[in-house]
Amino acid sequence: MEALLSLAFDNIASKDTQKIRKGLRQIEGMLAQICLSSGKSKPSTPQHRRNASTINLGEQQQSTPKKLGTLAEDPAFREFFRLQEGFEWNVATHVADCLNRLLGMSSTDSCTTDNQADILILSALSNLQGLLLLHAPSRTIFGREIYMNLLLDLLDPYNCPAIQSSALLVLVTALLATPQNTRTFENMDGLLTITSLFKDDETTQTVKLKLLEFLYFYLMPEAPVPSMSAPNTAMGFQRSPSKLAGAFDRRSSTVSGDDGGGAAARKSIRTQEEKQHLLGKYLNNVEALVQDLQETASFAGVTC
């Protein structure tokens, strides 16, 4: 896996768009191998099993998502998770850096068309969302202003709606169960960015709907990240007796460079009323959002 990651990192660090595309696909392929299990082939009839080409034509290859509870025992996932704990092999950091370079290339490189840049940015965002879901400790990198600012830049009005929508999905994933990141988002005028885009007449209805969904998510009650000794029930690993069972609970200092501990998380928590007050500085009638959230239970059972 190190060899594959090394090759992918070299590609996405290139200024050649073809190499960047190849590197992003290599990462996507690796994630697919981890998350998907190949369905059993079903040959058409026994007499058709004469050669490889006939077999391929007579079989239907299917891939189905692996169940989350089985990932802890999957050798590929265990190796992937182990590598992510170190800065050198942390894929989310490398993809985020690639995304930052792509933004620069789209604005300065005359050889890169807007369409090419947009496709690569969307691919990078898709990979990044998957990485943050697979390896929750990697979310802590968005506690750093340089990476949070990257997501906010992608929400600028000059970006296409597809990029804005994808950036919102990554932003939700980056804030999920990570109150420290939410405080960074707030300190960097993230609420102003979100509400300004929501009020902009040029913003498409599709993006406005996703912005509204984000505001519902933001207003959800916050919960601290579990301490190192707490059993993990959210990610489905509690049934595994292996060391990986507590992997999502341990501190992520190797990724973020800070302690990431439970005490720091608890100190950074804000109440729903406090967040409602902050959002009210930029948006009218926030009380209606909170009431709607409580009545409809849009995110029942979820804490951010």
TrEMBL record:
Coiled-coil stretches: none
SUPFAM superfamilies (alphabetical): ARM repeat
Region spans: Disordered: 38-66, 247-270
Keywords, in A-Z order: Cell cycle, Cell division
Pfam families for this protein: CDC14
Source superkingdom: Eukaryota
Polar residues compositional bias, start-end: 38-65
GO biological process: cell division
Protein name: Cell division protein Cdc14
Organism: Lophiotrema nucula
